[in-house]
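Before a colleague's protein record goes any further, I have to sign it off. What it holds is a sequence and that sequence's fold in token form. My question to you is simply how this chain folds and whether the tokens agree. Thanks in advance; the entry in question is below:
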Amino acid sequence: MSNTISMDPIWEAIRTDAVSWAAEEPALASYLHATIINHESLQSALGYLIATKLDCTALPSLVIRDLANEALESSMDAVRFDLRAVEQRDPACENMAMALLYFKGFLALQSYRVANYLWRQNRRPMAYFFQSQISQKFGVDIHPAATIGRGVMFDHASGIVIGETAVIEDQVSILHSVTLGGTGKVSGDRHPKIRRGVMIGAGSKVLGNIEVGECAQVAAGSVVLNPVPARAIVAGVPATVRGETTCTEPALSMKQLLNPLD
């Protein structure tokens, strides 16, 4: 095993699981070698996966892979936090290798990180290309200018929409069909600010330049039009405060009950 692998315990664990899977399921061996085992680092494997997922006839995978590797150079700390978030919060995830290969919420988020890097480098046409491909391939539409922290999990992820001026801080969990959107044609800063530790339930819509306070919880199917206090539980259409969270960070517990004592 190379020094590159041994210096990264997360990558070592992922590669070990892939080698074990290849032995258990020989029909998958070629796929596992191409995606994980033949790579010397998590960055290299993730760049390859992003390229194969977003490949199209107009822009070949080798070009996408080079762009992804360039962008990921400064994002690997966030990538590792995101991997741990999926493994620790999603009971369907057995290990980080599974998240890396098969969980489209994780892959969509890392592909966004490439688009965001390109946006910050003022390469906006290419950033928009990545946004379009992410939307088509993963069913997740994130504006490349949005700000997203680390330790973020998109659970299932289908139908997530995140607007241009949205901010998502660290340790946030968002379920499928969530919209962080605007309320019309207002320009400028017009999207929600999601603070640390928040959990947003499936199908919820958070609209406008409002803040969802630290460690708050938005119940599934809610429409949030007003600021949410820190540690509040909100639910309904429109959402109103229904209680207060009892855990440090609802995003970590993933409990989706209106009664925090249940």
